[in-house]
Design brief:
Blueprint (H helix, E strand, L loop, with lengths): L5 H35 L3 E10 L2 E4 L5 E6 L6 E2 L4 E5 L2 H57 L5 H31 L12 H18 L2 E3 L4 E4 L7 E2 L6 E4 L5 E7 L11 E6 L6 E9 L25 E8 L13 E7 L9 H13 L11
Antiparallel strand pairs: 1-10, 1-14, 2-9, 3-5, 3-8, 4-7, 5-6, 7-9, 10-13, 11-12, 11-14, 12-13
Length: 374
């Protein structure tokens, strides 16, 4: 019988070696896959529906007018209180000058009333003296008339003088009451404490405030955006420029409601930003929204209608980024991928499950999650 050559025996040995590896490696790989799925199954939840968020304010002026100066350029870093835009201040400077003039006129009117009050008081004192004299004169003429020592016309004249003096005292009392009412019931107060003066003072403060509002400043540190053109007309309450915060950014991830079963504030998060492949950020779940995104929609779903179709809802989750040195700049609106470690493990029963649980906890210790906010 002819002997087989070495070249013919080599392929058979290779097949035996391959078969042996498949018999051993196949079940081993399957077992490792099942172990991995058991250890990590349900623990990590992730989503691509996540974006970088930052404080963004559309700054609107509180007064109207043409834009006189633009102090910043597009995408320029700004500090809190830094001038962004200035509205033409001339009309508001004129209004302030007019309000101050009215304030001075009000003070002058109050001082005039107080002087009139003092003058009327002096006139009242004289009128009371005249009335006392008229009373005495009338009594003398009445005594003489009873003795038939004077004429009836002299008695009538004395009575007339007495009545005139009484009317003069009464009229002065009414005038004093009117002036006292104009002086808020107390003519001895300083001018600054009267309502008319306070109203004029408030007009001055409002005019000064309007003038100050012609200078539109940054509400916080950030980046100026959407700057207007010089000469454009700015309307009160309508945004003219935006400021985007360049720090304290966060991630807003919209998870399916079925992914939130074991998620709690404090769960660690791994974040990958599409713009920076190869860079990873760490964070933690800061809070979970109390309502789904559809609840805030302009046109919310009408689930009570007959054409209802069940759709898995998304719930916003706010993720706090942990500071790290030398990380690239994050900008609002960037797309990110997030993976949350909920710390949840599939549980089993029996000694085998206990042994596997011990191995599992050694390989991947449970994440420490904060207590959920009640």
């Amino acid at each position: 019988m002819p002997e087989s050559s070495p070249s013919q025996a080599r392929p058979g040995k290779r097949r035996q070696t391959l078969r042996r590896w498949l018999l051993i490696g196949g079940p081993l790989i399957a077992a490792l896959g099942c172990l991995y799925a058991w250890i990590f199954g349900g623990r990590y939840v992730g989503t691509e529906n996540a974006y970088i968020k930052a404080h963004l304010v559309e700054v609107a002026p509180q007064v109207s007018g043409p834009i006189d100066d633009i102090a910043v350029t597009e995408n320029q870093p700004v500090k809190r209180g830094q001038l962004l835009v200035e509205i033409d201040p001339k009309p508001y400077q004129v209004a302030l000058a007019q309000a101050k003039a009215e304030q001075r006129q009000t003070r002058s009117d109050i001082e005039t009333l107080k002087a009139n009050y003092q003058e009327k008081q002096a006139q009242l004192t004289k009128a009371r003296n005249d009335l006392a004299y008229a009373d005495r004169e009338y009594q003398r003429q009445l005594t003489l008339s009873n003795r038939h020592l004077n004429s009836a016309s002299q008695l009538d004249a004395a009575r007339h003088e007495q009545d005139s003096a009484k009317q003069q005292v009464l009229a002065l009392n009414f005038q004093l009451q009117s002036i006292r009412a104009s002086l808020n019931g107390n003519p001895n107060l300083p001018a600054e404490q009267y309502p008319d003066y306070k109203a004029a003072e408030a007009k001055v403060e409002q005019a000064q405030l309007n003038l100050d509002h012609t200078r539109v400043t940054a509400p916080f540190d950030g980046i100026a955006s959407q700057t207007p053109n010089e000469g454009a007309y700015a309307s009160a309450g309508h945004p003219i420029i935006s400021v985007v915060a360049n720090r304290d950014v966060w991630v807003e991830a919209n998870f399916k409601e079925t992914d939130l079963t074991w998620m709690h504030p404090g769960n660690p998060v791994t974040i990958d930003v599409d713009t920076y492949p190869g860079h990873t950020w760490k964070g933690e779940v800061e809070s979970i929204a109390q309502a789904t995104g559809s609840e805030f929609s302009v046109l919310p779903a009408q689930n009570a209608t007959g054409n209802w179709v069940k759709v898995v809802q998304r719930i916003p989750v706010r993720i706090r980024l942990q500071p790290a040195p030398n990380q690239p700049v994050l900008r609002a609106g960037m797309s990110v991928d997030v993976d949350v470690d909920t710390g949840y493990h599939t549980e089993g029963h029996g000694p085998v499950a206990s042994a596997l649980a011990w191995i599992r906890d050694c390989i991947a210790p449970p994440a420490k999650a904060a207590e959920p906010t009640p």
